[in-house]
Structure formats: C-alpha cells, structure tokens
Amino acid sequence: MLSNSAKYALKAVLYLALHTNEDNKLMVKDIYSRINVPQSYLAKLMQKLSKNGIISSSRGPKGGFYASNQNIDLPLIRVVEVIDGEQRLRSCMLSIHECDSENPCALHDLVGNANSFFIKNLEETTIKQLIGDVKSGKSVLPL
Amino acid sequence: MLSNSAKYALKAVLYLALHTNEDNKLMVKDIYSRINVPQSYLAKLMQKLSKNGIISSSRGPKGGFYASNQNIDLPLIRVVEVIDGEQRLRSCMLSIHECDSENPCALHDLVGNANSFFIKNLEETTIKQLIGDVKSGKSVLPL
DNA sequence: CGCAGAATATGATAAAAATCACATTTCGGA
DNA sequence: TCCGAAATGTGATTTTTATCATATTCTGCG
Ligand code: FES
Ligand code: FES
C-alpha cells in the first residue's frame, strides 16, 4: 500500500509541520533520530519533497528544512504521490493494472471500497488537519 | 499491503479453484500464461503453497497441481500469510510496529478501520466463496 | 570578499524482492 | 522393471528498494 519510503516521508512531513515554520528551521541531523529514519536516506527523501514543493528549505547558515503555511495546507496524498508515484496506491489488488470498479477483480469487493475510502481520505485531509489530532493528543507520531 | 508475490499466489489459487480438482490437474506450464505470472517464479510460489497445504499436488505422469475440496474451504488470509508472513498485513501505516488501536498513529483513523475491515474479510472469506462471484460473472480474474 | 554552514547532486553499496536455471526425486504406465 | 513426466530442492542472476558516502553549490555573516 504505502512503501517504506512513503511512511518515512509522511513522518518527516508531520514532524516538520509540528516543530518548524519559516522562522524555526531544522536540519536533517536534528530530525532523523526523532522519527527513527536513517540519516542519509531521510536526506534524500527530504530533497525530493523539497524539490516538489511539499516542504520548504533554505541553504547556508541559519538554513534548514521547514513547513510553510502553504505546505501544511497540502493534502496528504501529495506526499505519497511524490514518493511512490501516482499509480501505486491506485493499483488493483490482484493485478498490475489500475483498480477499476467497472471491471472489478475477484478481490475488489473485499477491499476496493476500503482502499478508495483510504485514498479519498488522503485526498481530503491536509497536513494541517492531521497534526491537529496529534497536538490534541488524539493520535501519536510514532517512532 | 499485498506483495507482488501474494497477488500472484492469489491469482494462482483462484485459477486452480476454478479449473482443477482431484481428477483434473494442471501443470505450471499450463497456468502461468493464463494468469500472466513468470513461469519459474510461479513454480516456486506454488511449491510453497503446496508445502503449506494451501493447494495440492501430485508428481509423475498425470500429476500436477490442483485445489481439493479441503483446500478451497480455506480462508483467503492463509494464502497471503504463507507468502507474505503474518505481520506484513497488520503493520502500522506509519511505522514498522504492528498497527495498534490502543496507540493509534496519526494516520490510523484514516486507514486503520479500512485496513482491519480488509483483514477481517480475508479471514472470513473462503476461496470457495470467492470463486462463486467469478463463476456468476459478478467479478473477474484479471490477467 | 571569503569562509563556514547548510541544502543539493551524484553515485556507490547493501539488502530484499523478483526472476531464472538446473539438478534431483517421485510416480504412473508401458 | 524402466522410462519419462511431473513436482521438488537448491541456488544463481537480475531488478528494485533501501542505505550510505562524498563532492558540489548556494547563502548569510563577519
Ligand atoms: S479491480 Fe482489483 S482491487 Fe479493484
Ligand atoms: S497505528 Fe498506525 S495504522 Fe494503526
């Protein structure tokens, strides 16, 4: 469903959304151990996220990565699409082609609904909304 | 969610359930192109399934793989557990640990329910039940 | 300006998943 | 009994994913 990389990326984005802003940046080395992701692997992921506008960054002294107000208004699905590509999430449970309700595979009824429900949630939920739950203690950002 | 191997295995099991029985066996070379799975890869998967009692086989001339009446009464989850291991399906969406409703991660509410719904279905649906839908044309076994 | 601190770019290595190839064992039938 | 047809066992190769390492570019500050 989600690749390991996508999980890492989501954790990183959420961590940035919780702990940074334009005036309060963080470097990879300050983050990786907090979310339990290998340092240089995380660096690569964050570069990709940054290049695709999911998170922000600035170089040089006083620089680092951060989540801008614009960034945290993005829907979660943007994060996983940048990392995993567009079709992985929408692929059929049995075959390689896209999941297709017009031509449901044998497993489609057992999972298709659940999956499209998940996708819909990812599309409709923004990063900002999600960290609300974490802040209020309703959910947790796991190691 | 499901590995490629698990998808292949499910397709193979369903194909056997649809087209074989004790008196009507099939060899890998008769199957692989019908379900679009590399021949020798499929052979390995079917050995594993056979060794774990998910499907049946007999050697020698007139031999082959088949799905017995016992086999098709198994729940679908047995197939994926044999191929993917027990925990993959139940792992948290954000971390490596098991999904845990007591300690929900930030994504849990968005997906946890959908996922446990899927698992429950895999546990409660037998192979036999599933091929009913295929036979009646309600769903399809895709390439 | 120039230096150090940071992201960025590039590519090498390691591990896991997918795929392929072949030797061995078992079994039915002539 | 023996031969060939089939699964089984073992391991090698390829591809993808995950991880590590290093060189390069940009930028604020003194
Ligand atoms: S068509 Fe296979 S999961 Fe939807
Ligand atoms: S705890 Fe993360 S998906 Fe359930």
UniProtKB/TrEMBL annotation, chains A, B:
InterPro entries: Tscrpt_reg_Rrf2 (IPR000944), WH-like_DNA-bd_sf (IPR036388), WH_DNA-bd_sf (IPR036390). It comes from the Bacteria. SUPFAM superfamilies: Winged helix' DNA-binding domain. It holds the Pfam family Rrf2. This is Rrf2 family transcriptional regulator. It comes from Flagellimonas algicola.
